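Summary for the funding panel

The consortium committed to producing paired sequence-structure records for every protein in the target list. Below we show the first two records in order, beginning with the earlier of the two.
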Amino acid sequence: MTESKTPSIFRFWRLYLVLAVMLLCVMAIGWKVGTLHILERDFLQGQGDDRTIRTVPLVANRGLITDRNGEPLAVSTPVKSIWVNPGEIVGEARVINRLAEKLELDAEALTGRIEQNVTERQFLYVKRQLPPADAEKILSEFDGVYTQLEYQRFYPQGEVTAHLVGFSNIDDIGQEGLELTYDDWLRGVPGRRQVMIDRRGHIIEELNTLETAQPGKNLELSIDFRLQNIAYRELKEEFITRRAKAASVVVLDVSTGEVLAMVNQPSYNPHNKSDFTDFSVLRNRAITDVFEPGSTIKAFTIAAALESGFYTPETIVETSPGWMMIGADEIKDLFDYGTLTVEKIITKSSNIGSSKIALQIGAEPIRNVLDRVGFGQAAVTGFPGERSGILPNLRRWSRIETATLSFGYGLSSSALQLAQAYSVIADGGIRKPVSLLKLSEEAIADLPRERVLSETISNQV
């Protein structure tokens, strides 16, 4: 009996061994599952979220720029940019070539960019600012290609307001004009949100907003686009007719100092800057360029003459024979105007008449008037590149320097300064700041106003 039983036990030892091993495997698997589910649950959940949950930026749109009546001058439109993770797409020559073809890019250059950034970056723009429909079409055709919402600046009035408004770059940062001056005001504050994505990078669910995007603040300019458009059209016509090198127009509201129109020639299209060869066209010449104002200064010479008490509007000045010598220098008029009153010296624009007045009253009274109305001082608009011009302050004025000062030579001014100076005469001798922004009723009431010429003399001039 014993001998027959012993072989049967050993006969099944292999089966028992297999069962034991299987039992150990089941126990090991159960232990591992329990460990993963209980002890490492948080870690694994985080790893899974890292692969499916992304924190993406919420882009903030730039503030609107309008004229004083709400006419849009600069608006932001939503666009999408294509980007890739170089590490995901490097070596995929067929995909890169197809992507380059779809986006009308050079395939070799795109491959080189991807290879150069494969170890340094996980984000690489392929093409910026596409229409959303075009970007979504690309996204549906390629794996490992992603889109990012952005805003592109659009200027409805084009070159008519280009010098004043300026423009922003592809990253929506102001580069010229008031876009640059008020960049911090116009620029929004981006936000953040958590989203769930699929394996192709498509957003399948928005989880929550971490930070709300704050759009930029709007900017209301002082200009009236109707006047701006008329001024631009008329200036361009004269600019072409006279074959001028440059030209500017500034229109002010004399009661408030607000700029109602400001245009320059030559101008440019803010939507097409890639073909620029002459960057001087970007300058707002009415503010950044200075020149000798010439005969426009005669009105202030006459104001100084009337203040001196030596002259009245009816005082006679002899200008014959239409020229005069001051030392070795000759001063002359276009014609021999003969005997003129002080009033006619302005209307005839007589260099001889203004020179004789200046030589009698001296240079200092004229310079004093020019200083009081704002020459040689910046208008303080905050516009980039604004210049103050030059108003000479000599210890001793020669006779020729005195004479030429009286008809606008030997000093320099911008078109805006000249307009501000004439606004003093137009507003009865009151000087006030100029503004490129629309002023509220409260701001107008609180404007600093300084009387720099008597009302009587301003009216006479």
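The next record, for a separate protein in the list, is shown here:
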Amino acid sequence: MMEKFILERPILDTEAKKTALKKFFAMDEAVQKKFFFDLIHPQYLYWDKAKYRQTPPGLRAEEYWIAARQMRSLFAQETYLRQENEKPFVFLPPPENERWHHQIDTTIGGRLFAPYSMLSEQNKQKFLSQGLIEEAIASSQLEGANTSRKAAKRMLLEKREPTNRGERMIINNYKAMRRIEEDFKNKKMDEQLLLQLHRIVSDKDEAIPANDRGRFREDSDEIVVVDESQQLIAHTAPKAAFLKKELSRFISYANDEETNSFTHPIIKAIFLHFWVGYLHPFTDGNGRIARAIFYWYLLRKGYWGVAYLPISTVIKKSPKQYGMAYIYTEQDDGDLTYFYEYHVRKILQALEEFDKYVRRKIAENQDIDKRVAKRAAQLNDRQKQLLHYLLSEGVHAYTTPSTHAAIYNVSRVTAYKDLEHLEKLGFLQWKKVGHQRQYRATKKLEQVR
């Protein structure tokens, strides 16, 4: 039988703990605050990293940790989320929390495109399409889809049928993200919406039996999350009776019906993400559902800019830390601060990367303006971006009407007009391959490299 992964922790008996707390709280208050703060800022540390930090005078690392955890428990807030042992998950708002919220509120909640006044609606549509595609790919890759990003992107843009399970996961996830952005964000959460999302995510997935699609798991399914690198159980799904009871509470929380108190939407969206992962309501696809619910909640609360941010692409760069954020929370007495802090930092990182991406695209448009100066006034931003893509990717690069339409979220008629205009200007030529027209750069365009 596979063993469970257990976090390292210091072992002190009751008397030793009492002694540690007595020594710590006998210190000057300023010293207490300094050393308490050292373990929560700039990062909220668990024992595996805290044990290497400078300790207060006269305290061993183990004693310091016991005192710091006691301080955390004094200041932490109980949340609406419950552990299987019926204890509440707790949360200690990080020192920079208000600044983080302000930054997120004023970007994805409002003025995401304010710094880019020259950006056209055409490019904004492209960024939306690209954001959903990149999120669908990365979120699926986090759960094992081994299709390359380039191949997956081409499949989605050309609307090609998937040829393996990885591609199936990605196309299903893309459909789910589209439904959330176009439809589900306007619907309240209920069991049917959760089941519908799962049916979309698991549709025709060969690894998920047909009778497991769109149903909640039972105890007989024996669902566990395994750390493949260590072959240890990272998480055991709670009993079905607990799942059933918590689902109704989850739905109330997602619909803002649980209490009269206000919880910031960013906090709540991250907590919902964690809650789905903790409850593990399905036999498979729980990670994709959890990340999709995060997007659903923020879009529903008016954070329209989140659809442009493929946050899973940032998470995918640190998958181990993502998994550990879950484990720290679950095994350190239900302290949600670990998961929250990890996630909010990834939102901020995604915002930084989006800013760099937009500025790069603006520069590319300006570059094309210079290269084809005589014709620049006759080109729209979609056409400029296409020319830059063909020039930068080399002789093997091409596009199709369906790809062009999908990238910019325009009709095929508009896509054909864009491409035919570039053909008339002598920049593109097409060749029929199968049922598609593949448009490639002409020698005339290549001469402006």
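Regarding this second record: The domain at 89-355 is CATH 1.10.3290.10 (Fic-like fold). The chain has a mean pLDDT of 94.
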